[in-house]
């Protein structure tokens, strides 16, 4: 007895006219280990009623009965569309009748003198029944999956193209793709991919398709496709190869990203505009801050000038009185003349400070810059010598004159020389050049101050023009020198630029319009 049959419930519908035969079948099945429920019927009506009640595991049917037979019983089972194992048990069935019954739908047949085979036959048919049900479930699930896929395929808002993985022929295309590209199903189906002009950039030749096929996965993030109507759309193109049964297919997903690209470009343009606006706002803020500093400096300059001019005037008057009482050969006269000269220079510096904070009337004249440079160098000669700084003069001859205020020009040169001196505490060389240059396509005078000093850090090059910005130690610089220099140069319609490299030195280049081109603007 099989362990699988021991104490297993078995519900049998027995189509049999003989109670004795039915009892014989029941004994064999009980001996086979089944917990048996058997119901005997012998007409079509009683069979139909029993089947409608349901719950039967197997139908055991005599082949021939006075009022009924196996073929009619099979017809009843088919009529009710029931899949229940149907086994014929007969003592008289011949081979041809058995074949006819099997063709009609019977699953097996046994002779009544071979009922020892009944248990195994039932087990086999029940196993086959379970297999049939499993196949139907799988087939149903596959049909449902195919239906879901087809619904997704038909309703997708991305283009989907199905290719034969071996030939490159188009097997299917969804409605969205056909509408987007302007092709009908008939125009696409059966064509090889490279025959469709819209895909020429993806598969211009069979070799390109073979690469697409062999890689199994290909992605184009930004692919332009030209529709049949001539419009160009930008798409993402992704292909995947997989098997459907034994057939290899390639699914191409095509997503229109034109709107996304337009949105990205619009965002980039907006960001650029915002950056430009922020840059302009920063520049405006810087200008306002500069104006505020200049206004503050103007008030400071006026206060300083007031405080300095009075004692300077007193000192100048006393020195002048002392000089008037001395003879020309008095040994102390030279010291007083030096004091008088320095007092005058201090007065000029105060005046220049006032000129920086508020534009005043300038004394414009024709100036030979070489002379003013030489005078300025002579003025700081003591400092140059004490710092062991050599001055190299490279003056062109002839050199055009310029229209300038001599006092302001000298202040410009003195500031630049002083900066060069401070940049070379251990000594060095200052090269001063004066030559003909070009400014706004016109003749100009170019003046260079090049030192071999410490240089200016790159991060400070843009700040050096700001008022009050200085890299000098506390008490040694006010941060006004270069701001004054730029103001003087710009008031003379010139330009000033600085180039510097750490440990290599700094070069200041100034361009002034030559006299012939400057007179009209400066008058």
Overview of this protein structure:
This protein folds into 4 domains: 8-135, Response regulator (Rossmann fold, 3-Layer(aba) Sandwich); 156-256, Beta-Lactamase, CATH 3.30.450.20; 273-336; 361-522, Histidine kinase-like ATPase, C-terminal domain (Heat Shock Protein 90, 2-Layer Sandwich), CATH 3.30.565. Helices cover 47% and strands 24% of the residues. The protein has 15 helices and 17 strands. It has helices at 19-31, 44-53, 70-79, 95-104, 118-155, 175-181, 185-188, 206-215, 258-325, 333-357, 369-379, 381-386, 406-422, 481-491, 515-522; strands at 8-15, 34-41, 58-62, 86-90, 108-111, 159-164, 170-173, 217-226, 232-244, 247-256, 364-367, 389-395, 402-405, 428-439, 442-451, 495-501, 505-513. A 5-stranded parallel beta sheet has the order 2-1-3-4-5, sandwiched between helices. It has a 5-stranded antiparallel beta sheet with strand order 7-6-10-9-8, sandwiched between helices. It has a 5-stranded mixed beta sheet with strand order 12-14-15-17-16. A hairpin with a 3-residue loop joins strand 16 (495-501) and strand 17.
